[in-house]
UniProtKB/TrEMBL annotation:
Signal sequence, renumbered to the chain: none
Region (Disordered): 163-185
Highest classification ranks of the organism: Eukaryota, Metazoa, Chordata, Craniata, Vertebrata
GO molecular function terms listed in the Swiss-Prot or TrEMBL record: endonuclease activity
Organism: Caloenas nicobarica
Domain of life: Eukaryota
InterPro entries hit by this protein: Las1 (IPR007174)
GO BP: any one term: maturation of LSU-rRNA
Protein name in UniProt: LAS1L protein
Pfam families: Las1
GO cellular component: Las1 complex; preribosome, large subunit precursor
Length: 185
């Protein structure tokens, strides 16, 4: 009998250590380290092209907004547009996979993947309504980055690098409930 070689998966990153380093860099809060991680993600994207995982791409776009925000180089309106585009792309790309032949409301799709409904409402306002306040865009970015960290990055690593305490999780649930009840308007 002939033994089949296991299929090899080709990825853009050099190994688990590089993946780990980029995740920590993106989520560390230090804009210099975040920029280095963003540069690494850009290199991955140039190697991987359209096969780049959506969650990595969305995380990079949102972190780029935070880095620009902390730099003080953009005006409030420019930041709203920057955050807005990243948030709209996140909601559209993450829910797109769940769309079937029949159009399913984004709010329903968001509930299915545990994205707070107010984030979908924020996306709707950014797309169809008047632009929201910068503070709300920043909050949306933080919530979505946390969702990506829990749902994608930590699961990829199978680690506990960013575990939250139960108190922090409860605070987050309560904050999202307030925003879900249309308090964000």
């Amino acid at each position: 009998r002939k033994r089949l070689k296991p299929l090899r998966t080709v990825v853009a990153w050099r190994g688990r250590a590089e993946w780990d380093q980029v995740m920590v860099g993106l989520y560390c809060g230090d804009s210099r380290l975040q920029q280095e991680a963003l540069d690494r993600v850009s290199a991955w994207k140039s190697r991987y092209g359209p096969k780049m995982p959506l969650a990595v791409d969305c995380t990079a776009e949102l972190i780029r907004c935070k880095v620009l925000d902390s730099s003080g180089r953009l005006k409030s309106h420019e930041l709203i547009l920057s955050y807005g585009l990243a948030l709209v792309r996140f909601v559209n790309l993450i829910t797109e996979r769940k769309q079937k032949m029949v159009s399913i409301p984004l709010r329903q799709l968001a509930r299915e993947v545990d994205i707070p409904v107010w984030v979908v409402d924020l996306r709707h306002e950014l797309t169809h309504g008047k632009l929201p306040r910068l503070a709300l865009c920043r909050r949306g970015c933080d919530v979505v980055l946390e969702w990506l960290r829990k749902t994608y990055w930590s699961r990829q690593l199978g680690n506990n690098l960013c575990e939250e305490s139960e108190d922090e999780e409860q605070e987050e649930v309560e904050a999202n409930a307030e925003l879900d009840s249309d308090a964000w308007e």
